[in-house]
Design goal:
CATH superfamily: Metal-dependent hydrolases
Distance between the termini: 57 Å
Structural class: alpha/beta
CATH architecture: Alpha-Beta Barrel
Shape: globular
CATH topology: TIM Barrel
Helix content: 25-40%
CATH class: Alpha Beta
Number of helices: 8
Strand order of the largest sheet: 1-2-3-4-7-8-9-11-10
Largest sheet: 9 strands, mixed
Bound molecules: zinc ion
Number of domains: 1
Length: 286
């Protein structure tokens, strides 16, 4: 195993808080046990299995088997006592499916709940970013504005969650003919999302997209992580979005550097999260 190249965690990035197993409908090569083994081999302390709970047509009606999933989590906790195995779920657009999402959350205890946007409503119908290849006449600026507005609705929606997952997600599917994505072009929209997330005391996820090309894949990139700090965001959660064991903690070296360069440190209060140390207080009462 490579010790310090891409794929190995940075010294302080010891928790992968976004991993999918065979219980996610789009992760046929997912394997919870093998992912735990991989996490231990990489020196991680925490792994969170945040399985998909999607209610859009893309999921084809697939539903998370909560009982089977929680049983598998319990099994892994027994098998790997040195690893903190968190249960979790990744809610896809729960603001559009509040009844289904709330019902799922009531079925078991989830240590970590991610909120995600994978699609927008465009011209009255659902547009999945993963299917953008078929939508080559889409205007990227219009799509991105719709995406950031959808994120705001997710945050202000009725279903509570803890982590805002993979901001800038559409970058993964950016079409070759489009002008390069630049967060500065959407500064106002992104700041509105980040301010809403900070008000709701969410953690912002730094998604390493399974270690893909860092400029395009890191979601969000360093600019937005800096804005998160600037609006007073306090918590950062690092996740690979691995859909098979080989991608656990992929890209963590870079993520750890970005987090540290932005002033975040591994939290001592909540294992797995990154936080910003409180600024030294100015003398008060004066
Ligand atoms: Zn996702
Ligand atoms: Zn995911």
């Amino acid at each position: 195993m490579r010790a310090s190249s891409e794929g190995a965690p940075a010294p302080a990035a010891r928790a992968d808080l976004h991993v999918h197993s065979e219980f996610s409908w789009d992760a046929p090569r997912g394997a919870m046990m093998a992912s735990c083994q991989r996490a231990l081999a990489l020196g991680l302390q925490v792994v969170a299995f945040t399985e998909h709970a999607d209610y859009s047509d893309l999921a084809g009606g697939a539903r998370l088997d909560v009982a089977g999933y929680l049983e598998a989590i319990a099994h892994c906790r027994r098998e790997f006592p040195r690893l903190s195995v968190w249960s979790g779920v990744e809610l896809g657009e729960p603001h559009r499916f509040p009844r289904e999402a709330s019902s799922l959350l009531s079925q078991g205890r989830f240590d970590l709940v991610l909120g995600s946007v994978h699609s927008v409503i465009s011209a009255g119908s659902v547009l999945e970013f993963s299917e953008l290849g078929q939508e080559s006449d889409s205007d990227p600026r219009q799509l991105m504005r719709a995406y950031f507005e959808e994120l705001r609705q997710l945050i202000e929606g009725p279903v509570e969650f803890q982590v805002l997952a993979h901001l800038e997600y559409p970058k993964r599917f950016w079409l070759a003919g489009w002008p390069p994505y630049d967060p500065q072009a959407y500064r106002e929209e992104i700041l509105a999302v980040l301010e809403a997330a900070a008000r709701h005391d969410l953690a912002l996820e730094l998604n390493t997209s399974r270690g893909g090309d860092p400029v395009w894949a890191l979601g969000p990139g360093p600019t937005v992580i800096g804005w998160w700090r600037d609006v007073g965001g306090r918590q950062l959660s690092v996740g690979s979005d691995a859909h098979d064991p080989s991608a656990v903690a992929a890209g963590f070296l870079l993520a750890g550097q970005v987090a540290a360069n932005t002033g975040f440190v591994p939290s001592t209060a909540r294992l797995g999260m990154w936080t910003r140390p409180l600024q030294p207080k100015l003398a008060d009462g004066g």
